[in-house]
What we know:
Layout: H1 2-18, E1 24-25, E2 30-32, E3 38-47, H2 60-72, E4 87-96, E5 105-112, E6 123-130, E7 136-143, E8 145-152, E9 157-174, E10 187-192, H3 197-211, E11 216-220, E12 223-227, H4 236-243, E13 247-248, E14 255-259, E15 264-267, E16 272-273, E17 276-278, E18 282-289, E19 292-294, E20 305-307, E21 310-317, E22 324-326, H5 332-341, H6 346-358, E23 362-363, E24 365-368
Parallel strand pairs: 14-24
Antiparallel strand pairs: 1-13, 2-10, 3-4, 3-6, 4-5, 5-9, 6-7, 7-9, 8-9, 10-12, 11-12, 14-15, 16-23, 17-22, 18-21, 19-20
Helix pairs in contact: 1-5
Amino acid sequence: MRAFLMAACAAMALFAGQAEAAPARLKDLVEFDGVRGNDLVGYGLVVGLNGTGDGIRNSPFTEEIMANVLERLGVNITGEQFRPRNVAAVLVTSRLPPFARSGSPVDVTVSAIGDASSLLGGTLVMTPLNAADGEIYAVAQGTVIAGGFSAEAQAARVTQGVPTAGVIPSGATVEREVDFDFRTLSNIRLALRTPDFTTAERIETAVNREFGRGVAVMQDSGTVLVNVSATRASSPAHAMSRIENILVEPEIRARVVVDQRSGTIVIGEDVRISRVAVSQGGLTVRVEENPMVVQPNPFSDGATVIVPQSTAALSVDSGTGGMAEVNTGTSLSELVTGLNALGVAPHDMIDILKSIKAAGALHAEFIVH
């Protein structure tokens, strides 16, 4: 095992020596203070379904909203037994983009909240969309485009995708604008999506190199303050158009992310491990059921009996070697490459990485999902 690791270390070291981190635009690294969207939500009704809507007995709120809609249209159904299967109560969600103006279209997502089996072919009735302050900022209506289909018979059912949720492209119209005047800003804060002191210092240096010394000031690991008036731009919008395209090389923290459900392992470039010895063995227990059906003799009073037959097998795979020693400074990617060469399964590799972290030899942030 050690021979495999040494060969993998040499190959990976050569590759790492040639790799360089690519710079990124500021618009891909930070969020600009004041330039943000707002979430919208509404409660509506989808009609025109082909018998795949809510069961009114199980979803009484659907009957209530349907009655309210018909009453607003001048139809009185008080006391009537109106229980169709072609309507469904839904939650409508959307996001108001920054600087959205009245009349601008936005996309909406429609999701069933009752026992409807499909929204395919349905039409969303006019639904107001509210923000966190309770005010109506958009109105949605249109044909729902479902993301799947469902077919059902008496003894079988086939479903692909999620037919109980769909989208309406440009299905909402902005009715109210967010009261925010970007032209009055004298200072703009750049909020790093991944706070880091080194990255913030590089952003400060890059902005000052573009506009002059003192324009940008790093406040902490996640914030850089830019004095818009000192940029000598004609407006804050013009200054932002230049700032967001400045190239900065971000500093990435040493991090290992694993997903135990899928066996996915993501390793950062700067992950390092101290000198440690690794040994791994696999234990497999296999249990099989082979039931046997025993029939009674002809013309007897016996009954058919199912006799269970179980077999269990235990196997231990200790690998091709004992313990592998990893030298100080070896990157984690080199260790994983060596383990891959020996055929170690991803889930076993995750257990090895957790053990190395518990031993204090893994110098990186370890995240498990």
